[in-house]
Amino acid sequence: TLLSPSRSTGTRDRNKKETVDATVHANTSRYHMRMGRPVCRRQVGVLGVWIGVLLVAACGAAVHQSNDAGGEKTVYGVHGVGAQAQGGGAVRILQPLRPPRSTRTQRSLMANISAEAKKLSHAAQPWVQEYMGANLTREGLDPILRGLSDEELYERFVWEFERLPILHNTPVSMRNGATLATHDGTPSGAEAVNGYVQSVCHRYIYGGNQTRLSVNDYALFFFQLYYGMPAYELKHWTVSQANECFTFHANNLQKASRGNMFYGGWTYVLNRHTLKDRLIVEAWDAGMMVFFNSTRHISMPPLGVLDAWLHTVQPHESYMNEPFPRHFGLPPQLCCDYSLADLFNRWWVPHTPVPVSGLMLLSPYFEVMTSGSAYLPEDLHYVVAPYLDNPIYAD
């Protein structure tokens, strides 16, 4: 099902916030590269992303064959071993087989993360409950919410957070992808054909213009050090190794009518229920946390899962109130005034604008990762597509 934004700000609106988003992500992006050339340039358009599946024959791709059974020991690809595509050559983004939904290594990792998250979340509960009565929170509440007790605020917060949509934005077209400061997705038409959301590692091994530097950064900061995954020799990744990589998503913390457009104009809203055993919750955008940690000389905060995440709230609040680095070029008057009250007002008070206080201006979410692969359409809830006359459809 395709839905147009219910509260569109205009098909050609390029507001100040999005301009700032693009500028900042150009300076702090994890992935600095250009999009690869399209394998199939046929537009899917607003008639439905799944029309792309009907274009398989025209694009020269085969019908999907799921690889749930093993995956981690399977090498596959339209043009052979994935490593052959590394370093350039013809784009092989279209693939006839899908990676496993999760590998043995990822399932083991998720079990460890979940067990630790439950302990940490339980221990963090008193802090979160006390935060509901803090002056910063109470003073920021809309008057109609100030009659709620701390316990009522806490219960509402937990209920809402555990039902926020999980978003993944990707370019709607090659033109859209070429204009983005942060290239973090495969064009939607190709993903419709492939039947899964590709990770940076998959794009690299299949010959897309994903740079080795971006994959190395991913492996060093997230894959090995942060998540404790196996260390690979980074010059020649196999498909089996790429299957171990995670994909980046975000929760809709702002309750906005569209996703994070600086990653692309096509918004997948993923199915929390089918993905619940594969999703990891982070306090903020992982790349941003690495950037700020380098100046604060601190380590990454612990990870959460969908039903145990309270320990991510305190580091989230702290990151969002970090002073703006001068080279970000952001208005200093917007700095350091974020609290959960901004979210509560947006969530529960009609006509409250989308909050952009503090570093919500840049990355307005708790990042959510898939430990494995998100299948399309099996793990998709719905899609939010731009209007047809939007310039991103121009190619």
What would you call the structural class?
A: alpha+beta
- Global morphology: globular
Order of helices and strands: EHHHHHEHHHHHEEHEHEHHEE
- The percentage of residues in β strands lies in 5-15%
Number of strands: 8
In short:
With 395 residues, this protein is of the alpha+beta class.
Structural commentary:
The structure is a single chain. The chain has helices spanning 16-28, 56-59, 104-131, 135-140, 150-161, 174-178, 188-194, 200-205, 212-226, 239-242, 272-275, 286-296, 313-320, 340-348; strands at residues 2-3, 166-170, 247-251, 266-270, 279-281, 304-305, 367-370, 380-384. It has 14 helices and 8 strands. Mean pLDDT is 76; it is low at 1-90. The chain has 395 residues and is an alpha+beta fold. It is globular, with a radius of gyration of 21 Å.
